[in-house]
Amino acid sequence: MPDNRLERSLRATFIGMVTNVFLAATKLAAGVIGRSHALVADAIESFADVFSSLIVLRGVVVAAKPADEEHPYGHSKAEPLAAAFGAIMLLLAAGWIGIKASVEISHPHSSPKWFTLVVLVVVMIVKEGLFRFVWREGEATDNAAVRTDAWHHRSDAITSLAAFIGIGIALAGGEKFSRADDAAAIFAAVIIAWNGWHLLQPALNELMDKAPDPETIARIKQIANEIDGVAHIEKCFVRKAGHLLFVEMHVEVDPQMTVLRSHEIAHDVKDAIREEMRVVKDVLIHIEPLGISAKKSLP
What pLDDT score does 197 carry? Predict the structure, then answer.
C-alpha cells in the first residue's frame, strides 16, 4: 500500500467517486422504474457527491504543490477550501431533497416497487464500507477534504436507510401509506443538512486561521523552552493550513547576548520544533531581550 499522503488521498477519493457513479446510475434507474421518490432523491444526491469528489481531487492535488513566488506559504489551504465546498454541496443536496419531497408528499402516488428495497440494501452496505475506508484514509493523512468526502458516503448510506424504511412502510401499508416514501426523504434531508453543517465549521475555522488545540501549542512551547539559551517564550501563535502547521514565536534571551548567539538560538529552536513535530512546516522566530519586550510590545 502506498504510504505517500497525496497518493493515499487521491486513491481514496477516486475509488469513492467511481463507485458513486455506478451506484447513482443504479439508484436513478431503480427509482424511476420502481416509482420511488426517495430513491430518485438519493440518486441525485449521489450524483452531487460525484461532482464534490472532483473538487476534492483537485483540491488535494493543488494542496500538494510546493510554495512558489505567488504563494510563499504553499497551497495547503486548498484542502479546507475543498472541504468547505464539499460541506456546502451537502447542504444544497439536503435542501433540494427536502423541498422536492415536501412538494411530492402532498400529491398521492403509487407505492414503490418491492425490488427497490434490494437495491437499497446493496447501496447501504457498499456506502458504509466506502465511508469507513475513505474516513480511515482521511484520518491517516489528516486531510479534511477527504474526511468530508467520506461523510458524503455516510450521508448516502443514511438516505438509503431512510428510503428503505419509507419504502418498506409504503409497501406494507399499501396506498394509504405511500407518502412514507417522501417522509423518509425529508428525514434523510435533515440528517444530511446536519452533517453538512458539522463538516463546514472546522473547514471555515481553518480558513480563518483558528488556533489548534492548546495541547499542540503547549508542546511547541515546551520544545522551545528546552533549548539552551532560551529564557522565556513571550508569544506563540500557531495556524493550521491543510495538515501543516505554521508557527510564529517571540523568544526572550539574555539582553547582553551577542546577535550571533541569539541568531543561533533562533535556528536551534526552529530546527528542534520541526524535528519533533513533522507537521510544522515553518517557524518564524522574533528574538526579544528578556525583561524589555513586555514593556514595548503591542498587545
Answer: 87
Confidence of residue 120 (pLDDT cuts 50, 70, 90): confident
Q: How many CA atoms lie within 13 A of 296 on its CB side?
A: 7
Contact call for residues 40 and 31 (beta carbons, < 8 A): yes
Q: How far is CA 181 from CA 106, 108, 167, in A?
A: 12, 11, 5
**Complete domains list, the chain, with CATH:** 5-207 (1.20.1510.10), 214-296 (3.30.70.1350)
Q: Tell me the C-alpha distance between 237 and 50, whole Å.
A: 38
In sequence order, the 6+-apart residues with CB closer than 8 A to the CB of 170 are 111, 112, 177, 178, 179, 180, 181
More confident residue, 63 or 288: 288
Nearest one of 50, 65, 86 to 6, comparing CA atoms: 65
Q: To the nearest whole number, what is the mean pLDDT of the chain?
A: 81
At 139 the three-state DSSP class reads: helix
Whole-number Å distance between alpha carbons of 167 and 175: 11
Three-state DSSP state, 284: strand
Rounded Cα distance between 55 and 50, Å, is 9
Please, what is the end-to-end C-alpha distance for the chain in angstroms? Answer: 49
Q: State how far the Cα of 48 lies from the Cα of 278, in Å rounded to an integer.
A: 36
89: burial class by Cβ within 10 Å (0-12, 13-18, 19+)?
Answer: buried
Q: List the grid coordinates of 32.
A: 424511476
- C-alpha span between 192 and 95 (Å, rounded): 9
3 state SS of 36: coil
